[in-house]
């Protein structure tokens, strides 16, 4: 059962407004989102849920559920992304954030790194006035103003190279993003990884703001307020790559342990704010301190921000990240100061 996953691409094509459609048949959009990203394994979902989705997509269960197909990961060497919500090659990733949380910096950094790996980066400018998008122009090989222009550029370049394509939610709501994905697939261009951003910050208030996704990067206002960048929430960000059949079990095990520690650390932080650190039970103090160190370690200097931070950008391989996180979880860094783990690369 571990090799089962939803055919997310088919859902995108057949049910553009999945949020509304899901509610109309009694499904929670959050449940559908978690099934798409793999946070809820298909093998553990209710039959009625799968049947309802198949009905919405006007397909059979065999078409809706894909068997035995691996999801290939794109390693960004950004610690928190690769560990908690890795990119699915050829999939669609949605960034959920309010303005000011650093989503465009993360997008620029990701595109900077993908270009180094030979990807062609393409931007479809959003509808209306959005001067902030100019901040990522330097990391784009191609900037287009219309969907047709974007299609032509991707169709040409995608014959020889992998594509990283980004656009704003305005094109999702109009259905144009799904249209271009379907047209590209029809001519055999399938090596396109799509990034969806929401410059207005409205996606934060919706359960399924972009429709079906392979990867979700949920930004955290609390991390952003404390300048813990990248401010990507490790508990709510997820990816279909993390389904048991698609990743190394060591990765999955460490990811689960890290999430558990950070979840409890967040709970203890609330207690500390009210009662003070000295009121935490001795048995929980170790959990608090290790959570504090893990949160610090997951911060990372970016290449695109060197001019602002005056810190050299850092890359950390997934295997190095897993090894370092294991050390923190097992207590090897208990003697280190939190400042020693903040904004570093590997240990």
Could you characterize what this model shows?
The protein has 347 residues and is of the alpha/beta class. The protein has 3 domains: 4-67, 434 Repressor (Amino-terminal Domain) (Orthogonal Bundle), CATH 1.10.260; 73-242, Rossmann fold (3-Layer(aba) Sandwich), CATH 3.40.50; 249-341, Bovine Mitochondrial F1-ATPase, ATP Synthase Beta Chain, Chain D, domain3 (Orthogonal Bundle), CATH 1.10.1140.10. 44% of the residues lie in helices and 12% in strands. It has helices at 8-14, 18-24, 29-37, 47-57, 61-64, 79-84, 103-116, 147-157, 169-173, 176-186, 221-225, 249-275, 282-297, 306-309, 318-330, 338-341; strands at residues 4-6, 65-67, 73-74, 87-88, 92-96, 120-124, 142-144, 163-168, 192-197, 215-218, 238-239. The chain has a 7-stranded mixed β-sheet, sandwiched between helices. A two-stranded antiparallel ribbon has the order 1-2. Strands 3-4 form a two-stranded antiparallel sheet. The longest helix is centred in the C-terminal third of the chain and has 27 residues, at 249-275. The chain is globular. The model has no long low-confidence stretch (mean pLDDT 89). Its main location: membrane. This is F-type H+-transporting ATPase subunit beta.
């Amino acid at each position: 059962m571990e090799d089962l996953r939803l055919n997310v691409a088919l859902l995108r094509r057949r049910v553009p407004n999945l949020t509304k459609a899901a509610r109309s048949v009694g499904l929670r959009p959050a449940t559908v989102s978690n099934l798409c990203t793999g946070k809820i394994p298909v093998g553990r979902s209710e039959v009625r849920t799968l049947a309802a989705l198949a009905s919405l997509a006007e397909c059979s269960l065999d078409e809706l559920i894909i068997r035995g197909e691996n999801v290939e990961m794109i390693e960004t060497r950004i610690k928190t992304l690769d560990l908690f919500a890795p990119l699915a090659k050829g999939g669609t990733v949605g960034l959920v954030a309010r303005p000011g949380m650093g989503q465009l910096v993360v997008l620029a950094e990701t595109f900077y790194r993908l270009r180094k790996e030979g990807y062609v980066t393409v931007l479809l400018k959003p509808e209306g006035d959005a001067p902030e998008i100019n901040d990522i122009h330097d990391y784009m090989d191609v900037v287009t103003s219309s969907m047709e222009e974007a299609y032509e550029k991707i169709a040409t370049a995608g014959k020889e190279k992998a594509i990283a394509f980004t656009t704003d939610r305005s094109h999702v709501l109009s259905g144009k993003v799904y249209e271009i994905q379907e047209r590209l697939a029809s001519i055999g261009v399938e090596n396109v990884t799509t990034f969806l951003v929401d410059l207005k910050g409205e996606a934060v208030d919706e359960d399924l703001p972009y429709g079906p996704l392979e990867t979700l990067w949920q930004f955290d206002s609390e991390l952003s307020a404390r300048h813990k960048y990248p401010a990507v929430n490790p508990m709510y960000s997820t990816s279909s790559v993390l389904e048991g059949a698609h990743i190394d079990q060591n990765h999955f095990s460490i990811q689960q342990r890290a999430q558990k520690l950070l979840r409890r650390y967040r709970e203890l932080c609330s207690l500390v704010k009210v009662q003070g650190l000295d009121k935490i039970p001795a048995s929980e103090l170790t959990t608090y301190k290790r959570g504090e160190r893990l949160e610090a370690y997951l911060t990372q200097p970016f290449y695109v921000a060197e001019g602002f931070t005056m810190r050299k950008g850092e890359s950390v391989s997934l295997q190095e990240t897993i090894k370092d996180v294991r050390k923190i979880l097992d207590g090897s860094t208990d003697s280190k100061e939190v400042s020693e783990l903040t904004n570093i690369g590997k240990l």
